[in-house]
Write a sequence for this structure.
């Protein structure tokens, strides 16, 4: 996205942030729920974007990590622990499990890795459903409390939306820092050319495990917010289709672009709602829209913008070259 | 002059086929050793065994007298051993400058310091210098995948030098590079060899390039060392003429 002037980008970003803070003040309960869900899913998709988009490691297990985070938060907060403590535990737990899930990636890649992570996703679902002493089984866990932040109750939809939005902001800053650090460059090296990366001293094993662990930890954060958002969880929302949804968000938004997950989550969470006026057809239209987009631009929404900017840059560069050439022409 | 690299009786079998059948040689500090031989004679396999990309079936590799056989490529690189590849191996979507920063960053600080420290790991100046040194200035911000074949070869070589290596193994650096760019490349290699006292092993089919660049040349055929000596000696060796150079 280097084609736009910096002040323009900053101004644009500030307007979006201000809108996200101000506009929802008039939203009803349902609108705020959907928007909170967008923020939560954007966090989970950002994690997957790190693992898949930047480090190039396919994962069909991000939904399972949202589940792990959600159950950790639900169990802890219903036993009287504060949500921030539950978030820390959710991060630790999903980081550790994600690290372990990274080991297969050291041996298998692409479709094979997708299958390994898919199996893990199913395993996690079975644990959520069958270990009812811990998770409440198919009955789930209800009456999950919403936290007090700095002494302010967030049980109403609007304050809790701000909790989700604030968390999204913190996660975004952290991810932005990570991808522009040498770690981000090493992740991209894993994606682009692991063989070359190794020969340049990049510890591909450790970075691969880190990519999985950090990406999964963000799934855990999203889960820890999802539980108090819905205030009731059961195993169903965390089955394989959530992992596939999150994968779609990353691909549709633009894998490997920082802003991809925000757009992808918007498409996945908000577009079906906007299409509701078509009543029975809304899911069909949604599916067709996604298919059409991916046929038109396999690199997602931001891929379109990126191509446009690259073209413009090439044109500008060749124009400059043409000018430079004409200056070099001998004077007659 | 002491030996930087000592290779003793390295063997590599793939199934029942012996690709490298017991190769021994050493490389002295500051020298440029050429490695030539017909296609499929085991040159690249030998490189991959030395560099930890393949595990040798037998034999030993020593770096400064210490056994390094079986170390992973990244570990060897941290010890100052770098390489270039026969086929293009750059990071196509990263810019030329980012490619070079990446090539050096793992040699700066610790993993933790690279997370919290500067985004360029303090390497922008070094990368720009390397870009200037290899005459890639006008391409610094272009994605590496958009460069011509020869330019990517130059970038690949430049990347091998970012970590300040003591020993560099170059696998056909001249392949597909046009004559004027090749003269530049040779020039750069000689300069780095002299100024930084870096030691090179160069696999190459371009005889003129090898003979003018290298102080010694090793000839391989069918997984074994056929001859080793000064370029002019090797060129006259009847066995070498028979196996590789032709009459």
């Amino acid at each position: 996205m280097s084609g736009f002037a910096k002040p323009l980008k900053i101004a644009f970003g500030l307007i979006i942030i201000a809108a996200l803070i101000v506009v929802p003040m008039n939203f009803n309960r349902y609108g705020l729920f959907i928007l909170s869900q967008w923020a939560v899913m954007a966090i989970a998709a950002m994690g997957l974007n790190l693992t898949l988009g930047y480090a190039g490691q396919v994962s069909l297990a991000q939904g399972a990590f949202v589940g792990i985070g959600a159950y950790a938060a639900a169990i802890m907060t219903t036993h009287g622990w504060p949500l921030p403590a539950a978030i820390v535990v959710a991060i630790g737990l999903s980081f550790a499990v994600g690290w372990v899930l990274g080991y297969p990636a050291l041996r298998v890649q692409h479709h094979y890795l997708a299958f390994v992570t898919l199996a893990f996703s199913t395993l996690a679902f079975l644990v959520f459903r069958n270990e009812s002493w811990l998770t409440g089984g198919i009955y789930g866990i209800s009456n999950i409390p919403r936290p007090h932040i700095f002494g302010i109750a967030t049980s109403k939809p609007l304050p809790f939306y701000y909790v989700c939005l604030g968390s999204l902001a913190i996660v975004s800053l952290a991810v932005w820092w990570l991808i522009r650090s040498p770690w981000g460059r090493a992740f991209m090296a894993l994606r682009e050319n692991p063989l070359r990366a190794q020969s340049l001293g990049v510890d591909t094993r450790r970075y691969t495990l880190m990519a999985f662990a950090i990406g999964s930890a963000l799934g855990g954060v999203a889960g820890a917010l999802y539980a108090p958002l819905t205030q009731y969880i059961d195993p169903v929302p965390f089955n394989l289709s959530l992992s596939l949804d999150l994968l779609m968000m990353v691909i549709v938004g633009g894998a490997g672009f920082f802003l991809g997950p925000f757009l992808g989550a918007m498409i996945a969470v908000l577009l079906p709602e906007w299409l509701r006026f078509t009543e029975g057809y809304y899911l069909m239209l949604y599916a067709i829209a996604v298919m059409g987009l991916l046929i038109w631009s396999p690199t997602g929404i931001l891929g379109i913008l990126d191509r446009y900017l690259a073209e413009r840059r090439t044109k500008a560069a060749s124009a400059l070259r043409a000018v430079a050439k004409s200056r070099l022409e001998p004077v007659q | 002059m002491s030996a930087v690299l000592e290779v003793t009786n390295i063997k590599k079998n793939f199934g029942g086929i012996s690709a490298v059948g017991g190769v021994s040689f050493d490389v002295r500090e500051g020298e440029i050793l050429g490695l030539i031989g017909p296609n499929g004679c085991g040159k690249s396999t030998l490189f991959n065994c030395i560099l930890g990309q393949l595990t040798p079936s037998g034999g030993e590799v020593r770096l400064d007298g210490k056994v390094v056989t079986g170390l992973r490529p990244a570990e060897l690189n941290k010890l100052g051993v770098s390489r270039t590849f026969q086929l293009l191996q750059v990071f196509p979507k990263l810019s030329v400058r980012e490619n070079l920063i990446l090539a050096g960053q793992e040699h700066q600080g610790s993993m933790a310091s690279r997370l919290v420290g500067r985004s360029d790991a303090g390497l922008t100046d070094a990368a720009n210098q390397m870009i200037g040194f290899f005459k890639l200035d006008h391409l610094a911000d272009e994605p590496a995948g958009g460069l011509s074949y020869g330019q990517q070869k130059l970038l690949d070589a430049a990347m091998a030098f970012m970590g300040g290596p003591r020993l560099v193994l170059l696998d056909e650096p001249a392949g597909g590079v046009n004559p004027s760019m090749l003269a530049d490349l040779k020039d750069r290699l000689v300069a780095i060899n002299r100024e930084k006292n870096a030691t090179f092993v160069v696999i190459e089919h371009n005889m003129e390039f090898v003979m003018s660049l290298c102080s010694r040349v090793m000839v391989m055929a069918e997984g074994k060392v056929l001859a080793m000596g000064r370029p002019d000696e090797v060129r006259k060796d009847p066995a070498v003429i028979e196996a590789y150079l032709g009459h």
Q: What stands out?
A: Strands of chain B lie at 3-14, 17-28, 32-36, 58-63, 66-67, 81-83, 167-171, 199-203, 216-221, 224-229.
